[in-house]
């Protein structure tokens, strides 16, 4: 990897991306990519936490010996993430790409190289330091309800302890008369989890300010005052996070038995597949670019016209699967198939739902989705050569 990186591009920093406080505000860090060759090089930056980080530009092309600076912005944080965050920078020489229009499609996978940058939040030598966060929540950013305000709505918040020590958590909403959390406190065993029921009471209209669920957590091993876990004495050991409560007329509330949360687009697919001439089957590669287990399902816009095998399944982190798309009718007019598409829906598999139906019809809004155009390219007609083509030319 190091030799390939030195041959094509130089990335600065090469292994660790540092952020410096204060962390209660958005902070930026910079990555410089330099093309070391005399040919064009394409690059793409990936992260599995797009809600936390903004990357501009996240992809592009560098001409010979050119360079660019990428701005990576981190949203405000109140605790250092327990799981290390990583950016993946992919790059490829365009001259070697089979598909130059989409250089990072799966057909070019063998020619794509990459480096990973680990995120580090630098702690100040003096003054207040951030505590290490030891919990993970699902959903991780916001809790979703519908805008039907005349009924009680309920969903579930899953909290997991990522450490090897017991952790105490406290849950409190800023609009406590509207949002009820049960239980309000919980002790999570090492590597254990807990479920909090979140209820939204009926209201005449939504409040003007944001509705927020505040979560505080502290490791039992760090607590000085064990009679009052969240006292001033323990303040410097307390991690905090916020989940925004959102109302939407397009998205329905989560049911009490479905710990589904909005997911990121973890799968990569081509934008188009092409049937040439009388070709009956074409391959379709699907790549899981995340570090999670992802379930997928392939749908067609016209039933009975195509067969996809396998049409559903699960992909481990960074796994690639090749599906076969078969057209069942070869005698259709081009106008009949002009708008045909495949739709790939996916979501990260929640650990508590290993055997559950991942794609219930009542929660379509929670799936990640990508569409693939189905194109048809006729074989060139073979016309007989004219007689003059066989005449011997004059000397």
Contiguous low-pLDDT stretches (5 residues minimum) are 1-5, 249-263
CATH topology of the largest domain: Immunoglobulin-like
Structural class: mainly beta
Summed up, the domain count is 3
* Biggest sheet statistics: 5 strands, mixed
Averaged pLDDT, please? Answer: 80
Portion in helices: under 10%
Give an overview in words.
It is globular, with a radius of gyration of 26 Å. It is built from one helix and 27 strands. With 395 residues, it is mostly beta strands. The N terminus is likely disordered. Helices cover 2% and strands 44% of the residues. It folds into three domains: 120 residues, Immunoglobulins (Immunoglobulin-like, Sandwich); 114 residues, Immunoglobulins (Immunoglobulin-like, Sandwich); 111 residues, Immunoglobulins (Immunoglobulin-like, Sandwich). The protein has a five-stranded mixed sheet with strand order 2-9-8-4-6.
Summary keywords:
mainly beta, Immunoglobulin-like, five-stranded mixed sheet, 27 strands, disordered N terminus
Question: Could you provide a short overview of the structure?
Answer:
This protein is mostly beta strands and 395 residues long.
Give me the secondary-structure topology:
Elements: H1 2-8, E1 9-12, E2 16-19, E3 27-35, E4 41-46, E5 53-56, E6 59-62, E7 67-74, E8 86-93, E9 113-121, E10 135-138, E11 142-146, E12 153-161, E13 167-173, E14 179-182, E15 185-188, E16 193-200, E17 211-219, E18 239-248, E19 267-268, E20 272-276, E21 281-288, E22 294-300, E23 306-309, E24 312-315, E25 320-327, E26 341-348, E27 368-377
Parallel strand pairs: 2-9, 11-18, 20-27
Antiparallel strand pairs: 1-3, 3-7, 4-6, 4-8, 5-7, 8-9, 10-12, 12-16, 13-15, 13-17, 14-16, 17-18, 19-21, 21-25, 22-24, 22-26, 23-25, 26-27
């Amino acid at each position: 990897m190091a030799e390939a990186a030195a041959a094509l591009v130089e990335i600065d920093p090469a292994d660790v991306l540092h952020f410096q406080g204060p962390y209660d505000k958005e902070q930026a860090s910079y990555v410089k990519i330099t093309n070391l060759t005399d040919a064009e090089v394409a690059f793409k930056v990936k992260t599995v936490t797009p809600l936390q980080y903004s990357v501009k530009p996240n992809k592009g092309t560098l001409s010979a010996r050119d360079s660019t600076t990428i701005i990576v912005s981190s949203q405000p944080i109140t605790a250092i993430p327990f799981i290390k965050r990583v950016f993946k920078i992919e790059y490829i020489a365009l001259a070697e790409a089979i598909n130059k229009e989409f250089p990072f499609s799966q057909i070019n996978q063998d020619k794509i190289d990459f480096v990973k940058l680990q995120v580090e939040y630098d702690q100040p030598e003096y003054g207040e330091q951030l505590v290490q966060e030891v919990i993970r929540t699902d959903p991780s950013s916001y809790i979703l309800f519908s805008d039907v305000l005349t009924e009680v709505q309920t969903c579930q918040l899953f909290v997991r302890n990522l450490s090897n020590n017991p952790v105490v958590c406290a849950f409190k909403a800023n609009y406590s008369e509207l949002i009820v959390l049960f239980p309000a406190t919980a002790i999570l065993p090492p590597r254990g989890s807990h479920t909090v029921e979140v209820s939204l009471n009926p209201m005449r209209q939504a409040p003007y300010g944001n509705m927020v669920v505040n979560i505080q957590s502290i490791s039992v091993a760090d607590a000085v005052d064990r009679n009052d876990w969240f006292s001033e004495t323990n303040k410097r050991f307390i991690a905090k996070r916020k989940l925004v409560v959102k109302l939407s007329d397009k998205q329905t509330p989560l049911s009490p038995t479905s710990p589904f949360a909005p997911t990121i687009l973890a799968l990569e697919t081509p934008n188009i597949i092409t049937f040439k001439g009388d070709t009956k089957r074409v391959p379709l590669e699907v790549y899981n670019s995340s570090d999670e287990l992802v379930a997928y399902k392939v749908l067609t816009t016209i039933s009975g016209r195509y067969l996809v095998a396998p049409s559903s399944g699960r992909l481990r982190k960074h796994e690639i699967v090749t599906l076969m798309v078969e057209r069942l009718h070869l005698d259709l007019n081009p106008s009949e198939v002009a708008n045909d598409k495949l739709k790939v829906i996916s979501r990260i598999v929640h650990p508590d739902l290993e055997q559950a139906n991942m794609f219930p019809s009542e929660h379509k809004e929670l799936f990640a989705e990508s569409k693939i155009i189905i194109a048809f390219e006729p074989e060139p007609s073979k016309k007989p050569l004219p007689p003059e083509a066989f005449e011997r030319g004059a000397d």
